[in-house]
Design a protein that fits this description.
By secondary structure, the protein is α/β, with parallel strands linked by helices. The chain has two domains: about 100 residues; about 170 residues, SGNH hydrolase (Rossmann fold). It has 13 helices and seven strands. Strands 3-2-4-5-6 form a five-stranded parallel sheet, with helices on both faces. Strands 1-7 form a two-stranded parallel sheet. Helix 11 links the parallel strand 5 and strand 6. Helix 4 runs antiparallel to helix 5. The mean pLDDT is about 95.
C-alpha cells in the first residue's frame, strides 16, 4: 500500500497536515524571498489537503474554527501589519490546532480490553473476519488458539451492518465480549450516513440488551466520509463500547503479504490481526 495512502487511512495525515500548516506559518514570519515563500505556500496547501483527506471525524465546529483561523492567519502573514500582530494571530492558530489535536489523540491510543477467563468472545463481522476461503484459519480462530479463550466467529462474507443483526441473534451467552468488525461494505456500497447510524444503533442496542461488552473496530475512512466515523464514535460513547483505533486494521492492510487483493486478508494477515487484538486483551482471573 502506498505510504501516503497509509498515513491518510490510519489518521496520521491529520496530525501531519496540522503540523505542516502551523510550521509553514511560523517559518513565514522570517522569510521574505520569493522562492521560499512559494515553497511555504505549497507546504500550507499540502497541510490543508492532508487534514481534509484524512476524513478525521471531529465536529464541524472544530473544523470550521480551524479553517477560519487558518485563512485569517494566511491573510495576516501576507498583510503589512505589525510583526507582533502577526505573531499573535499565528499563536492563536497554533493553540487552536493543538487543542483539536488533543481532542483527536485519544482515538489513536488503543485501550486495553478486559476479559475474564472462561468468558465467551463473539466476533460479528464481514469477510475480513469470515475469510473468503474455507481452508483459512481466520483471525478469530487464531485468537482463540493463542489466547486460550472461547472465541466464536459469527462473521459472514459480504455482511453489512443491517445483515449483521442475524449474527447478533445467534449470541445466546450473557455477559460476553463481542467484537464488532462491520461497516466496510456499507462504506463501499450505497448506504447513507443516516441509514448507517440507524442500523448500527439497532445492532449495538441489541448487543447491549444482552449485557455484552462491545468492542468495535473503527473504520478506516475514505476522504470526505467523516460522518460515518462520527456515527461510530457517537454510538460507541452511548453504548460504552471500546473503540479499536483504525490504525489496527490499516497496519494489517499495509503489511507486505497480509492481504490477497488489498482488502481480503491472507493467512499471514489473519495471523497479524489476531496478534494485534491479543495484545489489547487484559485477561482477568
Amino acid at each position: 500500500m502506498n505510504p501516503i495512502v497509509v498515513q491518510i487511512a490510519n489518521g496520521n495525515a491529520f496530525f501531519i497536515g496540522i503540523a505542516l500548516t502551523v510550521g509553514a506559518f511560523v517559518v513565514r514570519l522570517w522569510v521574505q524571498w520569493r522562492v521560499p515563500v512559494i515553497a511555504l505556500t505549497v507546504a500550507w496547501l499540502i497541510g490543508i489537503s492532508l487534514v481534509v483527506l484524512s476524513a478525521t471525524p471531529i465536529s464541524f465546529w472544530l473544523y470550521g474554527g480551524w479553517f477560519t483561523l487558518c485563512v485569517a492567519t494566511r491573510i495576516a502573514s501576507n498583510a503589512r501589519v505589525h510583526f507582533k500582530a502577526k505573531i499573535s494571530v499565528i499563536a492563536a492558530f497554533a493553540v487552536f490546532s493543538l487543542v483539536i489535536c488533543l481532542v483527536e489523540l485519544p482515538f489513536h491510543l488503543a485501550s486495553r480490553i478486559p476479559v475474564s477467563k472462561g468468558q465467551m468472545i463473539y466476533v460479528i463481522g464481514d469477510s475480513i473476519s469470515a475469510g473468503i476461503d474455507e481452508r483459512e484459519k481466520t483471525w478469530p480462530n487464531v485468537l482463540a488458539r493463542i489466547s486460550g479463550m472461547n472465541v466464536v466467529n459469527l462473521a459472514r462474507a459480504g455482511a453489512s451492518v443491517e445483515t449483521a443483526m442475524d449474527q447478533a441473534a445467534r449470541i445466546h451467552s450473557s455477559n460476553s465480549v463481542v467484537f464488532v468488525e462491520i461497516g466496510g461494505n456499507d462504506l463501499l456500497g450505497n448506504t447513507s450516513s443516516h441509514t448507517f447510524f440507524v442500523q448500527l444503533d439497532n445492532l449495538l442496542g441489541r448487543l447491549k440488551g444482552g449485557n455484552a461488552e462491545i468492542v468495535m473496530f473503527e473504520l478506516p475512512l475514505l476522504p470526505f466520509w467523516n460522518e460515518f466515523g462520527r456515527d461510530q464514535r457517537l454510538l460507541a460513547q452511548e453504548y460504552h463500547a471500546i473503540l479499536i483505533p483504525k490504525k489496527c486494521l490499516v497496519n494489517v492492510f499495509a503489511g507486505k503479504g497480509d492481504t490477497i487483493d488489498g482488502l481480503h486478508l491472507s493467512q499471514q494477515g489473519h495471523n497479524e490481526l489476531a496478534k494485534e487484538v491479543y495484545q489489547l486483551l487484559r485477561v482477568k482471573a
